[in-house]
Specification:
Blueprint (H helix, E strand, L loop, with lengths): L13 H16 L5 H13 L3 H6 L38 H27 L14 H25 L4
Helix pairs in contact: 1-2, 4-5
Length: 164
């Protein structure tokens, strides 16, 4: 079974820091600390990150000392319904996301259209090797089909990256 001493490396929060400052103030009030000692220890308490750091401030002092409650385990509860946005609140989009969408569109146009055009103009020269064995009219039809598919892919890609 765990004891409080087993958790000295657990991180602390503002509540624990405030409690340590209050207790140090109590030791100052009864004369166990000088104002200078209190100031030094209070500064350490404010920046402490773990239970150990706070506990060390009280090693040479009698009670009261900070008491640390064991943290309650986090309870995961999956959402059963979609969470609605508050009225008047709009989901944020960063400018970098908008810039990424613009870059994706430009690249799709700059790369896709020339590839599709070369495929159509070359009469299948950019198509699979099997097309070279087909009659010329069938090769042109195949090249045109590949070009249409490339252009359709560009259109779908641009629509997919379109900011909503």
């Amino acid at each position: 079974m765990s004891t409080h001493g087993d958790h000295v490396e657990l991180r602390i929060g503002d509540t624990e820091r405030t409690e340590a400052e209050r207790l140090l103030g109590e030791h100052l009030r009864v004369g166990r600390l000088t104002a200078e000692e209190f100031g030094e220890r209070a500064n350490i308490a404010v920046s402490a990150r773990t239970r150990r750091e706070l506990s060390m401030l009280f090693e040479d002092l009698p009670a009261p000392h900070p008491t640390f409650e064991l943290p309650a385990p986090l309870q995961y509860q999956p959402l059963t319904e979609p969470v609605a946005m508050p009225v008047g609140m709009v989901p944020m989009r960063s400018q970098s996301t908008d810039a990424a969408h613009t870059v994706a569109k430009v690249l799709a146009v700059l790369i896709g259209i020339p590839v599709a055009g070369l495929t159509l103009l070359a009469g299948g020269g950019f198509t699979l090797a099997i097309v070279d064995r087909l009659p010329h009219s069938l090769a042109m039809l195949t090249a045109a089909a590949i070009g249409v598919l490339v252009l359709a892919g560009i259109v779908v890609g641009v629509q997919r990256f379109k900011p909503k």
